[in-house]
Amino acid sequence: MLNEENKIEERVMDKIKSGRVRLRSKYVFWAEKLGLGSALALSFLLAVLFFSLFFFYLKASDNLAYFSFGSRGFFVFLESFPYALVAVLVVLVFLAGYLIKKSDWSYKKPFGRWALALAGLIMISGALLAYTKMAEMIENEAFGSRPLGVFFRPFLQPGLNERQFGIAGRVIEVGPDYVKIQTPQGTKTIDLKKIELPPRETLREGMFVMAVGENKGDTFEARLIRPAGGQDLPMIRREIHRRFGPFDSDGAPSPQGTGDFGDRIMTSPPLDFLPNHLNFNGGPASSGCDSFGGGQLFLPGCRDSID
Known about the structure:
Distance between the termini: 107 Å
Oligomer: single chain
Shape: elongated
Strand order of the largest sheet: 1-2-3-5-4
Order of helices and strands: HHHHHHHHEEEEEHEE
């Protein structure tokens, strides 16, 4: 036994002397271990972030909503799917798995268990993160002008791109055989001459609608059209708000910059709520005072108040 150990020691020393085996400082091993751990943590956190953005995209865009049109909506789903977002997510998951395999952890338990645990943890953490305000903040930054937002824009842009076989937006005009809508790309006319089934609800100005058919440039030739729910299409609603201005929860334009979209409500009272016979030039027009909202209203030059 002792002779065998001596032989092994001699072989190791021969390899060291010949240069085939090189001695390395323990600090180098620590640095490599620290770098591997940092890379693993970063790839895991980025995978969680991108999964949360993917989950948020499906929830906030019109992508899944097109399935309500049956087989016609499937093609719109494919053209509005966030392929770049999914590709980066897959790369990050495989990178995290590769780094786990290179670490000491893979020797303690089978790699298959680590892979399942990693995928499950990423999905659960990402889904929880999608229900916070972080993903919406990233969306607002992505379509702003800050450098960090510009980095995320290509991954969320498919949610606002023009579709060849689908369209969604806010109705601003209703005609006998057409509707004009506001979309994230601008104003578009939906031609209803070839509609196959009438919408289940009468179309009116201010409501949000979705349609499938074919894009013909400035006109979209619809085959099916339906109103969108009050909480549907939040990503499109926010972009239309940024492009055209605020509107209330029903889609109607809000006077004087007030409005409600998503979960943000601006509640400053518009001026046209005030009685028409009030004089805002410093004096009363008739009686001198009036009531507003069931309370008291005081104006410059008004000496009295009415409850």
